[in-house]
Amino acid sequence: DGGITQSPKYLFRKEGQNVTLSCEQNLNHDAMYWYRQDPGQGLRLIYYSQIVNDFQKGDIAEGYSVSREKKESFPLTVTSAQKNPTAFYLCASNRRDGNQPQHFGDGTRLSIL
Amino acid sequence: KNQVEQSPQSLIILEGKNCTLQCNYTVSPFSNLRWYKQDTGRGPVSLTIMTFSENTKSNGRYTATLDADTKQSSLHITASQLSDSASYICVVVRADSWGKFQFGAGTQVVVTP
Asked: Residue A76: CA atoms inside 13 Å, Cβ hemisphere, count?
């Protein structure tokens, strides 16, 4: 079955530590996205990528970094500069042509130790 | 101010009953409007996508309507089932800003036996 796999499901970060969230898709989609979801708020865009080796900042990119070295992979690093990292992180992808639905992974829940 | 407002914030309905969720938006220029269903601890799943020229679209027991003139949409759930318990998210896509989707905060629906 095609889909998006996020790992780990749960992640804990210590003070001053960088952590990396994995996102892999086998849907052959060009576009990939990272969102942050907090209680009572809509999803907020962290970074997105339309094509390999290119990515753009979203609305809340500070304290995060990404890479897009392969079409199927779009890892997100939460750096120590992100002072409030506790949230549910969602990765998504879609085809770039037309009004295509976004496909989402099942998320990673990040907490501070 | 969020450009996509959903109401009610939450609702409880009896199994077998119908309900309607509302979405008002100010996003402009408009490209399309989407409804997603998100189960607890999972990623959102697409229900419908409507463009400017479409005023209704169905997916099983889910029927979405769109009034682009008043910038309002609704999602109607018919004969609710326990599995309909979830958060329902309205998303509006701008026509001039690729990759940036405006998410509502969602309506939490609880279906009770």
From this structure: 35
